[in-house]
Task: inverse folding
């Protein structure tokens, strides 16, 4: 009895493991987008960039703190460093060893505004890093949507191929029976066979396309590329294709919502701060401090301390500084021009995205109409073929046109969804 139980366990475990290894994970569009946000490698890199910018700000803040330094020295010489000549009595060692310790703290009081503007520039850098991350997030999501809808279209095309294969298989049997009965010639069978081969070739291409698209989508989601063997998407439940007019927004009204717009503004602000920092470098600098020291030379303990104030005026640097400041002013002007040109580019991008959105909708309407007409054409050719008034070639052509029109409809749905996603993105939604 015990041997029987062991045998059952031995036989069952490989099957269980095989089942687990073959487990397939299905992802909705929202699943794909959420995983891309959380695990995409490029986004993770951008988030580290935000942390670097934060550390730079913390570094800039340390310039507000006092500059504290300490010094210590001790020595013991083999011969006297200082000795007293006693004539015939010889000499007497006065300084053979000693100790000195000191400490000093200097607090910057006025640095020409350099510290203040440096911290502001660091804040700008942090905000810019956050905006770059948001920009990369939009890019990753757009790419994720594109790969998802590409997979959807390939899945749907695979279905149309499978339906067409069933139709051809049924037609092949009918034609073969007619050939066996002497009604049709053998060449009619070859016509159907060639169509079957064409479909098999297309199916191979579709499977390879699905494999490659799976890898691309998995990479966007931060998944290993070898996970594609157990990777599927769930077709959206709602594939409503509606008039784009309901999503329209005036470009000038949504321009400020664009991440790129805010980055252009940050560029101007950063250039202005860099100019102020450069100017502050040639301003007088004031600091106050205190010092304290202890020394033991000649076996005497001495303690002393005091306070101090320092003013630094970079007189000789003023001429060189004037050119440096002019350079920063020119760079600020460049940033302003770049901002204005960027605004125009963003407006053009929004209008182009809208045009693409409308175009995709119009192509979808035409594709729907074409499918309806090609389906009716295929039905009539099927009827006429059964009645003997239409040749097999004409029937196959009608079936092929139906499949082609269905594929174009699938492409139209994909293009519409991608165009919709892009338009929502460029309008800050």
Result:
């Amino acid at each position: 009895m015990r041997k029987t139980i062991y045998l059952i366990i031995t036989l069952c475990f490989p099957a269980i493991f095989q089942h687990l290894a073959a487990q397939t994970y299905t992802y909705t569009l929202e699943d794909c987008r959420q995983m891309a946000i959380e695990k995409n490698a490029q986004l993770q890199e951008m988030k580290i960039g935000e942390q670097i910018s934060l550390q730079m700000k913390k570094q800039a803040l340390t310039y507000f703190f006092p500059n504290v330094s300490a010094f210590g020295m001790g020595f013991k010489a083999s011969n006297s460093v200082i000795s007293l000549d006693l004539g015939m009595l010889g000499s007497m060692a006065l300084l053979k060893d000693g100790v000195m310790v000191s400490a000093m703290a200097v607090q910057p009081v006025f640095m020409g505004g350099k510290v203040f503007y440096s911290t502001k520039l660091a804040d700008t850098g942090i905000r810019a890093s956050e905006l770059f991350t948001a920009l990369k997030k939009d890019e990753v999501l757009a790419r994720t949507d594109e790969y998802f809808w590409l997979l959807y279209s390939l899945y749907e095309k695979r279905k149309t191929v499978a339906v067409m294969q069933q139709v051809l298989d049924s037609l092949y049997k009918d034609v073969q029976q007619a050939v066996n009965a002497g009604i049709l010639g053998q060449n009619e069978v070859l016509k159907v066979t060639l169509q079957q081969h064409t479909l098999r070739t297309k199916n191979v291409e579709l499977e390879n396309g699905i494999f490659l698209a799976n890898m691309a989508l998995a990479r966007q989601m931060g998944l290993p590329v070898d996970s594609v063997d157990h990777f599927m998407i769930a077709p959206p439940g709602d594939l409503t294709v509606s008039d784009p007019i309901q999503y329209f927004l005036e470009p000038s009204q949504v321009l400020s919502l664009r991440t790129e717009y805010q980055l252009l503004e940050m560029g101007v602000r950063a250039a202005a701060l860099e100019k102020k920092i450069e100017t502050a470098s040639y301003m007088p600098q004031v600091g106050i401090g205190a010092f304290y020291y202890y020394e033991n030379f000649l076996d005497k303990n001495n303690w002393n301390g005091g306070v101090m104030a320092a003013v630094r005026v970079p007189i000789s640097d003023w001429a060189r500084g004037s050119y440096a400041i002019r350079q920063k002013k020119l760079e600020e002007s460049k940033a302003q021009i770049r901002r204005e040109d960027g605004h125009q580019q963003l407006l053009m991008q929004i209008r182009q995205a809208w045009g693409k959105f409308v175009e995709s909708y119009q192509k979808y309407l035409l594709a729907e109409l074409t499918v309806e007409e090609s389906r009716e054409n295929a039905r009539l050719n099927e009827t006429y073929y059964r009645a003997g008034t239409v040749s097999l070639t004409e029937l196959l052509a009608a079936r092929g046109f139906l499949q082609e029109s269905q594929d174009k409809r699938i492409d139209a749905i994909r293009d519409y969804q991608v165009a919709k996603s892009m338009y929502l993105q460029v309008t800050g939604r």
The radius of gyration is 40 Å. The mean pLDDT is 78.
